[in-house]
Amino acid sequence: MSTTTESVAVEPTPPVQVVYCQVCSFPVEYCEFGSSLTRCKEWLQKMDPQLYDKYYSEEALQAKIGTLSLEAQEKLEKETAKKEAKAEAKAETALKKKMASQVTIKRIERNKRKHVTSIHGLENFDVDLKKAAKLFAQKFATGASVTKNLQGQDEIVVQGDVSGEIVEMIEEGVGLLKGVPKENVVEVEEKTKKKGGGD
């Protein structure tokens, strides 16, 4: 007697497709927990009206907050508006601070003909200092490192007189330096004081 066993092919479950918000970077169903709900809703309505209706249509909102009292709903709306205004003010302040900050490029004379170039302020423009130091070291075939200056702030120190070339790199927006505005760059020359020298 022969028995035939039929194998049943089980279809694998396809992965869940998650749509991420381009405004707050959360999945769209979690935008309400971010600080920019109004802009998230506008973005979602433009990009995917069906998904917008699923989460933010009148029926969906009524289902979500149907259990809340009117006072609780008003309080929730006020808190959301306050949170958004606070986040916008914070972003605006950060942008003003960023645009007011400067990148200082100092040419420092060590002794006679030896120079080093220090670059301070790149971190204000979201430049990774270690990566920038590596970029300068490769570009100029010299030593470059991240150190603390006298004020306790990080700066990049490059061996040699390369201040002019670094200014050109910033103006051209080379690699990591793309986001640094050339108007915010200041070149400074610092000489060591000569010892003795009396007549």
Q: Could you walk me through the main structural features you see in this protein, from its secondary elements to its overall organization?
A:
This protein has 199 residues and is of the alpha+beta class. It has 6 helices and 5 strands. It has a 5-stranded mixed sheet with strand order 3-4-2-1-5, with helices on one face. The radius of gyration is 29 Å and the shape is elongated. The model has no long low-confidence stretch (mean pLDDT 79).
Structure characteristics:
199 residues, alpha+beta
Order of helices and strands: HHHHEEHEEHE
Strand order of the largest sheet: 3-4-2-1-5
Largest sheet: 5 strands, mixed
What percentage of residues falls in helices of 4 or more residues? Answer: 40-55%
Task: Kindly estimate the percentage of residues that lie in beta strands according to DSSP.
Answer: 15-25%
User: Structural class of the helix and strand makeup?
Assistant: alpha+beta
- Number of separate strands: 5
Radius of gyration: 29 Å
Instruction: Note poorly predicted spans.
Output: none
Give the oligomeric state of the chains in this entry, treating copies of one chain as homo and distinct chains as hetero. Answer: single chain
Overall pLDDT:
79
